[in-house]
Amino acid sequence: MDPILNIAANALATADAEMAVEAQNTANANTVGYESESVTVDPLAYQNTLEGSVATQVVQSTDPIDAHALLDATSTSQYWATQATGSQSLQSAFAEPQTGGIQETLNALQNAWTAYQSAPTSSSDATEIVSQAQNTAQVFNSLNNMLTDNLAGVTADIKQQAALVPSLLAQIATLNNTINASQPGTSQAANAIDQLNQTLQQLASVAAIQVIPEANGSVIVNSQNATLVTGTQIPLAPGWQVGDNPPAGLISIVPAPAAPPASAPTLMLNGSIPWSPSSGSLGGLLATALTVSGWQVGLTSVAAQLTAIPAWSGPPPVTLFTIAAGQLSVSPQVLASVTQLQSTQAGAAQTAINGAVSSWSALVGQVGAAGQLATEQSTTSQENVTAITQNFESQTSVDTNQAAQNLIQDQQAYSAAAQIMNIAQQTVNALLAAVQ
Question: Which pTM was predicted?
Answer without folding.
Answer: 0.78
